[in-house]
Amino acid sequence: MKKFIRILAIAMAVLILPGCGSEPSEADTGQSAPEYKDALEVLSAITGVYKEDELFSHYGGDQENAVMDAPGTFDLTKTDELDTVLGMPESEAEKIEDAASMVHMMNANTFTGAAYRLKDGTDPEAFVDAVKSNILARQWICGQPDTLVILDAGGGYVITAFGEAETIELFKSNALSALNGAEVMTETPIA
Question: Domain with 164 in it: what CATH number?
Fold first, then answer.
């Protein structure tokens, strides 16, 4: 009888213990785990699907630490530059934990794109509305961009891009094909 009770106790432990201390699954939390380690990896995935003759000359990152012909990490302490270059209002800077950018080398109004990792608890819709309002309210110099598109890349990442219509359409198409589950949150002409 003691042997039977010991075997029963061991069997119960084998069935119960694997659930102890395990991380909640995606199904348990309702949120998807980030597929990318950072915002730079998100933009790099998109540029990686461009054909050689499609990708324009660009720089990435903030102006002090710019890299040529590649997306670059953006210093989050440069809140004024986040606004003036990328169109993200300074008021939203506290809601992101990571950013990367890519900007057309000759004219930012031809193409400016950014990827942001939102902090946990940030309302993505409110963030998108704030960025959209800020970009649409701008006074443009040296030409005006045609289109603004904002995408949800999953895992807390939001991508913004504004510029010439065909350039934005190609970027959007490449983003949707490169980023598993990416969706357009908003797309609007800039008038």
Answer: 3.40.1000
